[in-house]
Write a structure and sequence with these properties.
It contains two helices and no strands. It has about 80 residues and is an all-alpha fold. The chain has a domain at about 10-60. The longest helix is centred in the middle third of the chain and has 31 residues, at about 25-55. The radius of gyration is 21 Å and the shape is elongated.
Amino acid sequence: MRTVQMTLDEELVGLIDKAAKRLKTTRSAFTRDALRSALERLHMQDLERKQREGYSKKPPKRGEFDVWEREQVWGD
């Protein structure tokens, strides 16, 4: 692992410390998890944007997905 220095406001550090204590982890571990989650959200946003762009450029044809309609129905 690599050590990095970050500047955070006191209130945020306090909230992080409280959360880390509640989760029985360290400030560093909590922050690593939070950064990983933020990167995953960013990745998902990129994928969703690409999907929207793709469907904007080539919208589905009428009836193209009808074959999957039965798969969308939840049983009672």
